[in-house]
Specification:
The complex is a heterodimer of chains A (369) and B (428). Chain A is of the alpha/beta class and 369 residues long. Chain A is built from 11 helices and 10 strands. Chain A has a 6-stranded mixed beta sheet with strand order 7-6-5-8-9-10, with helices on both faces. Chain B has 428 residues and is an alpha/beta fold. The longest helix of chain B has 22 residues, at 201-222. The chains are: A alpha/beta (369), B alpha/beta (428).
Chain lengths: 369, 428
């Protein structure tokens, strides 16, 4: 194909532009709203896009009232869809059709809009990623995968064996034993190993809104990195005066109170990397979110020491996100910036409120480390 | 995209020689060998790699490759009504599949050349669409891509508003669309817009091209069952009487039954078509007499008249469309309703003097209202004056109008049971 390859690619790009244009217009809503959280990459996200459907004079069922599309009312739609439905009643020009995207595609759009560079993985490709190839034949399977030729061959073999086959009047009557099905085999290919560790300050000064912001930033970072690595280990840690590893659910829900000793988190992180995720083999991403209040200047010194000695040398990136809270002094970020500004893999960012989520993601991921 | 290798060329020669010896009469066929992505691309473009640029083709392509990736669908063959007939072969197909596709394509090519409903189509459609594509690119450069795209969006939403009854007036003329002089076809709304809407020169030009393409694609919508049935009747005949080698029988049977089966059951157009042609063939004693009869039928009918004439009660019972005569009649009536005007509502022009007055010829089925309002808006945008459409909703006469971009509904009195002849519909 000479021109053709580019031919449909242009049309498709234009279509994607229209869809993406819509998503980009609403990107902030998707990113700062909570309804995407908890979705996994393969799940489809429905994006209502006006003008995609071709209106025609055609027969149809005029359901209740306006006969508007039924998709919008459903529960897992994005926030703000209520607006579009409302508008639809008074202004029938708003024809909405939903385009379904996978979360990865959403991440790609996010990446495009924020101009995030693609990540260059380091290290050896160590992890095995498996995919399915339908190359083998098995005795069990769904009838949609029935392999006719092999089934008949088995029938023929059996019928010749038990002398029920008559070459002058060939009849094949497969029995259950003869049935053969196409079947898959897992094929492994090596991939780069990557892990993200999210650390969050859950001390008393971090309020609900602060945690929600952390949660949203973490989710989109996670989604983006997942679109870059096919296999990704994600670990979560919370700390107040002491740090502990928790599961994802706890990370997002937990509310503790108490003092803050950031060094406890960095110590545990260093231990995790040493024992489970040696940086010689893993691409490691560390994210730490707090309101910037630390127990003491001495502890902060210890933190900086841990970062310089143990964490920074091997990791792809250390990101510190400081969420503005009513009680936080914000001192920790100043200290980090003051002493680590020369380190190329340290990124810090202050997030004042939900408006700051998109810029924060851009700051963290904009370097492509 | 490559030309077929020596093996496929030999196969093509053998298949076509056999098809001609059995009575098929088709123009030259040119094959292109393509991979899945290329085939999906060409399918998204309606068979024409040279078609004008539009995002909707990109959307269709996106849908096709996703469907393919999820294993939901797979296009086997694609054949284009142009001269020479162009058909695409998937490079991944096995030899027996290629043989099957070639036999099938001979049937389509014969159908394009002989069915009366195709007699008006332009033989050089590949060139025509290439020049449309080139022209639209130039216009996009001149007046702006988005302006042209928006205009095409509107016209595409009207491209079923053409007049099948006017097709024969297009015969023997360049292009596919009937002439606008001395009169515009009663149902040719695209023609009416082209004739008397106050359009810019470039809009006029784009509309003329879109209308021409609509008339080119129209007969394919009107003859789906016949066209697929005829091609399947012939591939089955050619394969099972001569072309198949012993080792290929099981694979062929698997492919064939795959194409004839599916969720639609007996309503699958391939299945319905091949069975109807088979029934006609056997009803005339099979053999040469049977062939003569099916050959005549393929020349003169469209899906609607084909089903009307040849779908008998006996056929109904045999293919489990119904058991009792009443069930059969109901099944046939339902099928014919879905085939009337290609399954599209019949809209005719009542007046085009200043305001454009349209009527939805009532057959018991309501229009999809939100889409109708939106479509009317598109008509009015082209017509640039008030547009009205008489239809029915909830057993009431309804006059939809679009004036200055505003759509309004005006209900008339209650109409009893909602049945009634289209001509005596009261104006609201």
């Amino acid at each position: 194909m000479t021109s053709e390859g580019g031919r449909i690619a242009r049309d498709r790009r234009r279509f994607e532009e229209i869809v993406r244009g819509q998503i980009k217009r609403d990107l902030k809503r998707y990113v700062t709203g909570s309804e995407m959280i908890g979705r996994r990459g393969r799940q489809l996200v429905s994006i209502p896009v006006p003008r995609i459907e071709l209106p025609r004079l055609r027969y149809g069922k005029n359901g209740k009232g306006q006969g508007k599309g039924e998709g919008e009312g459903q529960g897992d739609g994005a926030a703000g869809e209520a607006d579009s439905v409302g508008a639809a009643g008074s202004e029938p020009g708003q024809h909405l059709l939903e385009v379904e995207l996978r979360l990865e595609e959403m991440a790609a759009i996010l990446g495009e809009e924020l101009e995030l560079p693609n990540i260059q993985p380091r290290g050896r490709a160590r992890v095995e990623v498996t995919s399915r190839k339908y190359t083998s034949v098995s005795r069990q399977g769904p009838s949609s995968l029935r392999h006719m030729r092999r089934t008949i061959k088995e029938t023929l073999k059996r019928q010749i064996g038990d002398k029920s086959y008559d070459p002058d009047d060939p009849r094949f009557i497969p029995i259950a034993d003869d049935l053969r099905y196409r079947s898959f085999r897992d094929v492994s290919t090596p991939d780069h190993a990557a892990m993200i560790l999210y650390m969050m300050d859950v001390s008393g000064s971090m309020g609900r809104e602060q945690k929600e912001i952390v949660r949203l930033v973490s989710f989109w970072i996670d989604t983006w990195l997942r679109s870059q690595y096919r296999s990704l280990e994600t670990r979560y840690m919370v700390h107040d005066a002491a740090a502990k590893e928790v599961d994802q659910d706890t990370f997002y829900r937990l509310r503790e109170s108490g003092g803050t000793k950031i060094s406890s988190a960095y110590e545990l992180a260093a231990e995790m990397l040493e024992t489970q995720f040696p940086t010689s083999e893993w691409n490691v991403y560390l994210f730490h979110f707090s309101d910037g209040d630390n127990w003491s200047g001495r502890d902060t010194e210890k933190c900086l020491q841990l970062l310089t000695d143990k964490l920074l040398p091997g990791v792809n990136m250390f990101c510190y996100g400081q969420v503005k809270s009513a009680y936080g002094s914000g001192q920790f970020m100043k200290d980090v910036d003051a002493s680590l500004s020369d380190e190329s893999n340290v990124i810090s960012c202050e997030i004042l409120d939900r408006e700051g989520i998109l810029p924060a993601i851009k700051t963290f991921l904009g370097k492509g480390l | 995209m490559t030309t077929p290798g020596p093996d496929l060329q030999t196969l093509q020669r053998d298949v076509e020689a056999l098809a001609r010896s059995q009575g098929l009469d088709f123009p030259e066929i040119v094959y292109e060998v393509v991979d899945h992505n290329q085939l999906n691309e060409i399918a998204a473009l309606g068979g024409f790699p040279v078609r004008y640029p539009h995002w909707r083709f990109g959307m269709e392509f996106d849908r096709l490759i996703k469907g393919h990736a999820y294993g939901l669908q797979r296009i086997y063959e694609l054949v284009v009504n142009t001269r020479p007939v162009v058909a695409y072969l998937l490079s991944q197909n096995s030899p027996v599949e290629q043989k099957l596709v070639m036999a099938h394509v001979c049937g389509h090519a014969d159908f394009f050349a002989h069915n009366a409903w195709f007699s008006h189509t332009d033989p050089n459609m590949m060139d025509v669409l290439a020049s449309h594509g080139a022209r639209i690119r130039v216009l996009s450069d001149q007046v702006g891509m988005e302006k042209v795209e928006d205009f095409i969006d509107r016209v595409q939403s009207l491209d079923n508003l053409v007049d099948p009854g006017a097709m024969d007036r297009a015969r023997g003329r360049p292009g596919n669309a009937p002439p606008l002089e001395p009169f515009v076809g009663e149902r040719d709304i695209l023609g009416q817009l082209l004739h008397s809407a106050p359009l810019d020169e470039w809009q006029h030009e784009v509309l003329a091209m879109m209308r021409d393409e609509a008339y080119y694609f129209l007969p394919q919508m009107l003859t789906k069952i016949m066209n697929e049935g005829w091609a399947s009747f012939w591939h089955s005949r050619l394969m099972t009487t001569s072309l198949l080698r012993d080792a290929e029988v099981v694979d062929y049977a698997d492919q064939h039954s795959g194409a004839m089966g599916g969720d639609d059951g007996p309503m699958n157009p391939y299945k319905l078509g091949i069975e109807l042609f088979g029934a006609i063939f056997h009803a005339h004693g099979g053999g040469q007499a049977g062939l003569e009869k099916v050959t005549e039928v393929r020349a003169v009918h469209n899906d609607l008249t084909f089903v009307d004439n040849f779908l008998t009660d006996e056929f109904c019972v045999r293919h489990r469309l119904g058991g009792t005569p009443e069930e059969c009649a109901a099944a046939k009536e339902g099928l014919m309703a879905s085939l009337t005007n290609g399954g599209q509502p019949v809209i005719r022009i009542l007046g085009a003097d200043g305001e454009l007055e349209l009527e939805h010829c009532w057959n018991g089925q309501e229009l999809q209202m939100d889409a109708a309002e939106e479509t009317l808006r598109n008509v009015a945008a082209l017509w640039q004056r008030p547009v009205r459409l008489q239809t029915r909703l909830d057993n009431r006469a309804l006059l939809l109008s679009c004036v200055d971009g505003e759509v309004g509904r005006e209900y008339g009195e209650l109409l009893g049971d909602g049945e009634g002849a289209p001509s005596d519909e009261p104006a609201a």
